[in-house]
Structures are given as structure tokens and as C-alpha cells.
Amino acid sequence: xxxxxxxxxxxxxxxxxxxxxxxxxxxxxxxxxxxxxxxxxxxxxxxxxxxxxxxxxxxxxxxxxxxxxxxxxxxxxxxxxxxxxxxxxxxxxxx
Length: 95
Known about the structure:
Distance between the termini: 41 Å
CATH architecture: Alpha Horseshoe
CATH topology: Serine Threonine Protein Phosphatase 5, Tetratricopeptide repeat
CATH superfamily: Tetratricopeptide repeat domain
Helix content: over 70%
Structural class: mainly alpha
């Protein structure tokens, strides 16, 4: 078990003791993101925001996650566009 998984288990236990602590959910979201559990991470950010809608840090980090996801999608599309062009299926044009 790696350190992130261990931390996640500890957080899950802490959340059962204090379900209204938005910082627990925020940290859980960041750990889930590091573990590449994207949907679960976004849900945890939503839970953190639901518990404290006045904390801009929650929105900021959720936005960073979306930005990272967009960058990954852009790279994925670029790679596949080039592959299609190399296979002569699609003329290549930089997006």
C-alpha cells in the first residue's frame, strides 16, 4: 500500500467521525486526484464545497483539476490526430 492509499484510509476514518469537516473532503479530493481517481476526486471537491461554500481554495483546486484534465485531453487529441494522419485517414492540421 502506498502512502496516498494509507492517507486515504485515515481520512475515510476521520470523515466518519466528523462528516461536516470540509478540509477532510478537500484533502480526500487531492489524494484521489493523485491516485488518478478523477470522478471520485471531483465528487470529494463537491462535498468540500457543499460544506463550506465561502472557501475560495476549494473552488480554486477544483478548477486546477479541470485545467489539468483539459490539458490531458488536448494531448490525447493531438496524439490521435497525428496517428490518424500517419495512417492517411485524416489530413493533419494543427489544432
